[in-house]
């Protein structure tokens, strides 16, 4: 029965306005408030229920607040609970009324019954009214020391609630210290778990302003604390285990023995029926073994079966969450899963989002031995009545063809798709055949024969039409009818809505003209005329360009429009390896499901307890000086042998387009264009590469940077010499940053003239490099810029790590320095500041 | 960290709404519902269980037509959130006996009471029905189960199995029976979901069994229970590739590829005598989930024949044979087959004299549906369908139609041959021997024959 219908006097039971009912309730409650007659509690219960049902469906019942409070003087716990629920809902927005409740809540906090003490304390902390915090401190302090674990459990979370209402009150009362004590001493595991979550949240929020808090936050992942939790892990319930495991995954063990001990201890967690526990355990295993290639691979083998079991048990929603993680692992190490391909076959009743993941996995694990079976299976899906599924399956077949050596059979299959005469199948296949030809030009004869038979009238989708037109132009020599088909397409120029298709049409007719001039001349003329009159800017530009090119010199046009093409060996990947690594770092989180690192979808303040790694992710990595490139590449080369190593070189250069959140460093951009021009081809046809070079500004910056005296510091600070060629990779930096305590933290001012130079984010790193201080990562937008620097002592290679936040409007700089050798950190700080101040004068 | 939890009806009404952190706007339920309902304009694609909208992450699971939803702003573990939602549904069901819109509406105060203890300020405290008992004081208002669609795997036993009391699976863990005494009983269900794909020539391409041993205990005093499984049960197919069927088939051994256990299960003597021991907590929970890719005999064989009869006509003949003993009866069988889009009309010929069978052409989905109330083991059934098309198909019928899929339930049958040999209740009860129900059931997960 719906709550509104419960009120029998309601004139319109479907949607009561609520007003009449609420004032009725108010009157009835008032009558009951003082009554001690037997049966009063039952009547009250009914009335309270009505109030709460109105509350649920969104009717404002705050007007009965005082009556509810008056009626709460009862020993009936069910009534009390309803009253607490009500009060919790309305107190925040009615602070004056909330004051009414303080009295009885405080009294209940001293009740004999621990249940009532706990419940009252929870309600008291949930009021969320800033003026009332003074009333919270006493009961909370008592709650933390209560003899009953339920009350302590509530109090531990209560401290966090207080912190969110008034951080200063919470800190002044020294509650975090009490929590820490409880966390390490309490017998009740849930109390311990709540202390941990509260402390994690409090220290993370405090860490940005307080050094001590940052230290405390680091202390939570120190060896003694982590071991304490590990030793008690079986006492915790499954949810608390997830929290502990997440904590352990942040811990950096000192040696491999420690890693094995931890993994042996947690091994049986992989057999837990709760997927969240299993994934949290897997995260620990994966992260701890990252640098141990063999063991890391064994971990993959070990976690395969539990993951597959989780995928096939539980609700479809749960299995989707696990499947997303399996997908991530398959994409990182396809060869480990190549014999499990049958698990990735789609079932007809699965939702599309599951099938899509499975198709990607099938594509990834395809190798010489299983390709035939996988492609056969995929062909079944192509015939599927489900159109999106058929499309995805064709794409999968195409992707497999593009990554295989022996594509013979696959090309035949693709060509068969064209004969199926289903519009969506034909369209999707055409796009693929086009890509295939760019990689394997040797197949052109077979393909052209089939493609030539397709009537352009049956192809309507712009992408497919563009692909067909591209082939008509590219293979004009081999396709008998090419000029005439193009001609008929040009006749319908006006009806062609897609600018992309019109652009391709222009290029194709150009190519065709250069090969078969007499037959195409007329079509070309018509196309150029139509193009010049086109309302779309790009189309008009291209038509004009071709027109002038032909006017200037036909042979030059030939060289530009129809140069001999190199087969494409690698298509640029859409997702950079850096992004993939970030997602892997955030294993067991939404990043994996969304296939995006968290900084792309969460606000900064919601990034969880240990936000450092995310911070670094927000910045662009890779401003190493030229000397370091060699070292970095050497590392990469080694990594390639490592199992899931990070990056393929082709990909790593392609990252400049990951959203506006960070600036592509000009340094990288120039290498991309310099080193790999001609090899790296974007999938889109004939479009200019999307990489922007900022050569001009770089040149100026270089002048600025190089113009600085190379080692001015030597004279000022003879005590400290830095290694000019120091190098560290970002992940090692990150790890070190986590391990080391902050040794210097201060705020300084810089010259506004220097700040002006901040408009180019590359200027400062290059300047600092002249002082042997290397930038690891940088980012931010005006007015806040953030940099991570790294330096190394020349004589004993101990490291200095710097976080530097520059506010360009206030000209303030916040410095945090961490050092292996604490004693020299002050000297380094001075050196750093002097280098920075020289930037100001540059 | 969960910001909000709410339950929506199929129409999008708020049945329960609890805000834990106050950092997500109040209208989130409406925003969520609109997004899910209109995920894609054509309405064909389902919304995924997790999505992000304006910085808010929405998680949802569907249980008996209700949407259980959680929101958060942080980068939470999706498994944790979805597992939690499923668990909340189970806890509520344990308390209310029946989970439905009506039972939730009647008991929303009790549900709020549960929610307050399950999550505090966004952090999960406990989802154990047992632990929650000491915190929860409302008595459930029991709704009549008979009128409601049943829920969950155990509900399979409701149909056609007279040997057990119908009320058992819909009994609340806290409500007392009329007469004040609780009936001492324990249910152990072996539920196997099978997936089989047949090639067009009738060979098994892939097959898998996903099994669960589910337990629901109404025993007082939390006695320890020992559950003995097959002697020849093995876990892990070490050395045997996952799909090497020849390996262990025929030896009679039951080989699980992998399995996982509820946290209450002790495996101390499992290696010696294949016995699991546990103290079952109150409420329903899976003792063990397992996965088998070992070859097994599929319960049904499906035979499809398509004959073209002229340019605009064709005949489809579907044959289903039940390959299990005649002492066993499958029920609620549905055979489906997509037909070419140009199909305009279908005439059906059922076997003469059959009862409990219907055949239908669902025009909107271009689908043939053949349903049977029951099939006795060893029997065979045939359906003939004459199709009329609006345009010529040029022999392309097989590319436009199929595959044939089948759903069914077979009580007292499990293809894996995994057994509970005995169920021992350690402590002697004061009262008479408690009732023990050990039940088997097999259900089709994805049972598909290509044509």
UniProtKB/TrEMBL annotation, chain A:
Signal peptide extent: none
**Entry-linked SMART domains:** B2-adapt-app_C
Q: Give any Gene Ontology cellular component.
A: endomembrane system
Quote the biased-composition stretches of kind Basic and acidic residues, using this chain's numbering. Answer: 641-652
Compartments in which it is found: Endomembrane system
Q: For this entry, list what GO says about its biological process.
A: intracellular protein transport; vesicle-mediated transport
Q: Which residues form a coiled coil?
A: none
Domain Beta-adaptin appendage C-terminal subdomain, first and last residues per copy: 720-837
Q: Compositional bias of type Low complexity: which residue ranges?
A: 1-17
| Keywords tagged on the record | Membrane, Protein transport, Transport
Q: Name one GO molecular function term.
A: clathrin binding
One Pfam family recorded for the sequence = Adaptin_N
For whether the record's keyword set contains Protein transport, the answer is yes
Q: Where is this region: Disordered?
A: 1-25, 641-661
The record's annotation in InterPro entries points to: AP_beta, AP_complex_bsu_1_2_4, ARM-like, ARM-type_fold, B-adaptin_app_sub_C, Clathrin/coatomer_adapt-like_N, TBP_dom_sf
Function field: Subunit of clathrin-associated adaptor protein complex that plays a role in protein sorting in the late-Golgi/trans-Golgi network (TGN) and/or endosomes. The AP complexes mediate both the recruitment of clathrin to membranes and the recognition of sorting signals within the cytosolic tails of transmembrane cargo molecules.
Q: Subunit structure, per the record?
A: Adaptor protein complexes are heterotetramers composed of two large adaptins (beta-type subunit and alpha-type or delta-type or epsilon-type or gamma-type subunit), a medium adaptin (mu-type subunit) and a small adaptin (sigma-type subunit).
Question: Record's PANTHER family?
Answer: ADAPTOR COMPLEX SUBUNIT BETA FAMILY MEMBER
Family that this chain belongs to: Belongs to the adaptor complexes large subunit family.
**Name of the protein in question:** Beta-adaptin-like protein
- Species: Handroanthus impetiginosus
UniProtKB/TrEMBL annotation, chain B:
Q: Which GO terms describe its biological process?
A: intracellular protein transport; vesicle-mediated transport
The domain of life for this entry's organism is Eukaryota
Organism from which the protein derives: Handroanthus impetiginosus
Main location, first listed in the record: membrane
Q: Where in the cell is it found?
A: Endomembrane system
Keywords for the protein's UniProt record, in alphabetical order: Membrane, Protein transport, Transport
Task: Answer whether the UniProt record assigns the keyword Protein transport to this protein.
Answer: yes
Domain called MHD: residue spans: 183-450
Enumerate the transmembrane spans. Answer: none
Name assigned to this protein: Adaptor complexes medium subunit family
Q: List the GO cellular component terms.
A: clathrin adaptor complex; endomembrane system
| Family statement drawn from the similarity comment of this UniProt entry | Belongs to the adaptor complexes medium subunit family.
Q: Which Pfam families match?
A: Adap_comp_sub
């Amino acid at each position: 029965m719906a709550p509104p219908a419960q009120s029998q006097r309601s004139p319109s039971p479907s949607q009561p306005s609520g007003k009449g009912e609420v004032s009725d309730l108010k009157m009835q409650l008032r009558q009951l408030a003082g009554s001690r007659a037997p049966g009063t509690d039952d009547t009250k219960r009914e009335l309270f229920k009505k109030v709460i049902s109105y509350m649920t469906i969104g009717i404002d019942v705050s007007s009965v607040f005082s009556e509810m409070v008056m009626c709460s003087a009862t020993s009936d716990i069910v009534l009390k609970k309803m009253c607490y629920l009500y009060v919790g809902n309305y107190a925040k927005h009615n602070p004056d009324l909330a004051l009414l409740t303080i009295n009885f809540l405080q009294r209940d906090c001293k009740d004999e019954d621990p249940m009532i003490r706990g419940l009252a304390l929870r309600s008291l902390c949930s009021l969320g009214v800033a003026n009332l915090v003074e009333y919270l401190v006493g009961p909370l302090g008592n709650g933390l020391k209560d003899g009953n674990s339920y009350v302590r459990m509530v109090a531990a979370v209560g401290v966090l609630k207080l912190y969110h209402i008034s951080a200063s009150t919470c800190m002044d009362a020294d509650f975090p210290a009490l929590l820490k004590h409880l966390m390490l001493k309490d017998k009740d595991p849930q109390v311990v778990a709540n202390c941990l979550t509260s402390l994690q949240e409090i220290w993370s929020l405090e860490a940005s302003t307080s050094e001590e808090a940052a230290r405390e936050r680091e202390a939570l992942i120190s060896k003694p604390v982590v071991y304490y939790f590990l030793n008690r892990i079986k006492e915790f319930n499954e949810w608390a285990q997830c929290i502990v495991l997440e904590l352990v995954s942040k811990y950096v063990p000192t040696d491999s023995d420690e890693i094995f001990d931890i993994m042996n201890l947690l091994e049986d967690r992989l057999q837990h029926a709760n997927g969240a526990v299993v994934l949290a355990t897997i995260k620990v295993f994966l992260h701890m073994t990252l640098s141990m290639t063999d063991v890391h691979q064994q971990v993959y083998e070990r976690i395969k079966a539990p993951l597959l079991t989780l995928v096939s048990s539980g609700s479809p929603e749960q299995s989707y969450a696990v499947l997303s993680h399996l997908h991530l692992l398959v994409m990182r190490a396809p060869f480990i899963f190549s014999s499990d391909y049958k698990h990735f076959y789609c079932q007809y009743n699965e939702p599309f989002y599951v099938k899509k993941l499975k198709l990607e996995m099938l594509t990834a694990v395809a190798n010489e031995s299983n390709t035939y079976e996988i492609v056969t299976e995929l062909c079944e899906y192509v015939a599927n009545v489900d159109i999106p599924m058929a499309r995805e399956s064709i794409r999968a077949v195409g992707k497999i063809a593009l990554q295989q050596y022996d594509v013979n059979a696959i090309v035949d299959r693709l060509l068969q798709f064209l004969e199926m005469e289903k519009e969506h199948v034909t369209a999707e296949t055409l796009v693929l055949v086009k890509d295939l030809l760019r990689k394997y030009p040797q197949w052109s004869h077979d393909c052209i024969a089939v493609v030539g038979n397709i009537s352009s009238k049956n192809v309507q989708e712009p992408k497919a039409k563009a692909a067909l037109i591209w082939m008509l132009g590219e293979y004009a020599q081999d396709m008998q009818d090419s000029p005439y088909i193009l001609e008929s397409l040009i006749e319908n120029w006006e009806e062609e809505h897609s600018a992309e298709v019109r652009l391709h049409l222009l290029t194709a007719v150009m190519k065709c003209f250069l090969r078969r001039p007499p037959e195409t001349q007329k079509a070309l003329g018509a196309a150029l005329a139509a193009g010049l009159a086109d309302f779309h800017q790009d189309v008009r530009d291209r038509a004009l360009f071709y027109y002038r090119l032909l006017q200037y010199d036909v042979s030059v046009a030939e060289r530009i429009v129809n140069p001999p093409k190199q087969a494409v060996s690698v298509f640029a990947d859409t997702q950079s390896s850096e992004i993939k690594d970030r997602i892997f770092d955030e294993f067991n989180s939404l990043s994996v499901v969304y296939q995006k690192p968290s900084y792309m979808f969460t606000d900064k303040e919601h990034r969880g307890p240990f936000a450092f790694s995310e911070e670094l992710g927000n910045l662009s990595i890779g401003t190493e000086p030229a000397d370091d490139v060699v070292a970095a590449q050497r590392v990469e080369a080694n990594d390639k042998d490592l199992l899931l190593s990070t990056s393929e070189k082709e990909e790593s250069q392609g990252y400049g387009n990951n959203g506006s959140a960070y600036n592509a460093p000009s340094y990288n951009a120039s290498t991309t264009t310099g080193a790999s021009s001609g090899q790296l081809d974007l999938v889109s046809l004939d479009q200019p590469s999307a990489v922007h070079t900022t050569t001009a500004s770089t040149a100026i910056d270089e002048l600025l940077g190089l113009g600085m005296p190379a080692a001015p510091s030597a004279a000022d600070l003879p005590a400290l010499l830095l290694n000019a060629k120091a190098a560290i990779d970002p992940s090692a930096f990150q790890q070190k940053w986590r391990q080391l305590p902050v040794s210097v933290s201060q705020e300084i001012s810089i010259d506004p003239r220097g700040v002006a130079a901040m408009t180019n984010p590359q200027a400062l790193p290059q300047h600092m490099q002249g002082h042997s201080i290397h930038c690891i990562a940088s980012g931010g937008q005006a007015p806040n810029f953030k940099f991570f620097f790294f330096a190394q002592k020349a004589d004993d290679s101990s490291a200095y790590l710097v976080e530097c936040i520059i506010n360009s409007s206030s000209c303030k700089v916040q410095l945090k320095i961490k050092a292996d050798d604490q004693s020299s950190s002050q000297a380094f700080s001075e050196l750093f500041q002097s280098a920075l101040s020289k930037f100001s004068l540059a | 960290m969960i910001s909000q939890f709410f339950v929506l009806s199929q129409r999008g009404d708020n049945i329960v709404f609890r805000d834990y952190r106050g950092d997500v706007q109040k209208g989130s339920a409406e925003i969520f519902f609109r997004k899910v309902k209109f995920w894609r304009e054509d309405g064909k694609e389902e919304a995924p269980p997790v999505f992000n909208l304006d910085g808010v992450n929405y998680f949802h699971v569907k249980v008996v037509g209700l949407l259980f939803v959680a929101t958060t702003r942080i980068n939470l573990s999706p498994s944790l959130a979805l597992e939690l939602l499923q668990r909340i549904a189970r806890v509520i069901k344990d308390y209310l006996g029946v989970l439905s819109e009506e039972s939730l509406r009647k008991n929303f105060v009790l549900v709020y009471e549960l929610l307050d203890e399950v999550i505090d300020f966004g952090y999960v405290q406990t989802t154990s029905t047992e632990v929650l008992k000491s915190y929860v004081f409302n008595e459930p208002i029991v709704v009549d189960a008979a009128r409601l669609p049943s829920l969950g795997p155990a509900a399979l036993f409701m149909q056609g199995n007279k040997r057990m009391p119908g009320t058992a699976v819909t009994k609340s863990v806290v409500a007392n029976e009329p007469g004040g005494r609780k009936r001492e009983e324990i249910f152990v269900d072996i539920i196997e979901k099978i997936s089989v794909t047949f090639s067009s020539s009738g060979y098994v391409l892939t097959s898998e069994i996903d099994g669960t041993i589910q337990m629901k205990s109404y025993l007082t005093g939390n006695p320890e229970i020992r559950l003995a499984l097959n002697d020849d049960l093995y876990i892990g197919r070490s050395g045997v590739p996952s799909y090497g069927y020849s390996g262990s088939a025929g030896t009679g051994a039951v080989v699980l590829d992998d399995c996982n256990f509820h946290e209450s299960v002790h495996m101390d003597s499992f290696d010696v005598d294949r016995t699991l021991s546990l103290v079952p907590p109150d409420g329903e929970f899976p003792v063990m989930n397992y996965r088998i890719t070992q070859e097994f005999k599929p319960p049904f064989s499906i035979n499809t024949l398509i004959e073209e009869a002229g340019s605009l006509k064709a005949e489809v003949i579907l044959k289903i044979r039940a390959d299990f003993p005649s002492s066993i009866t499958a029920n609620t069988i549905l055979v489906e087959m997509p037909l070419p889009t140009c199909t305009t009309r279908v005439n059906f010929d059922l076997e003469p004299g059959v009862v409990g069978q219907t055949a239908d052409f669902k025009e909107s989905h271009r689908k043939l549906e053949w349903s049977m109330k029951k099939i006795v083991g060893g029997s065979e059934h045939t359906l003939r369908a004459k199709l009329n098309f609006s345009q010529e198909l040029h022999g392309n019928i097989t590319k436009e139609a199929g595959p044939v899929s089948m759903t069914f339930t077979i009580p007292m049958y499990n293809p894996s041959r995994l057994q509970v040999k005995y169920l021992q209740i350690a402590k002697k009860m004061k009262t008479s021997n408690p009732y023990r129900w050990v039940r088997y059931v097999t259900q089709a997960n994805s049972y598909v024959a290509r044509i």
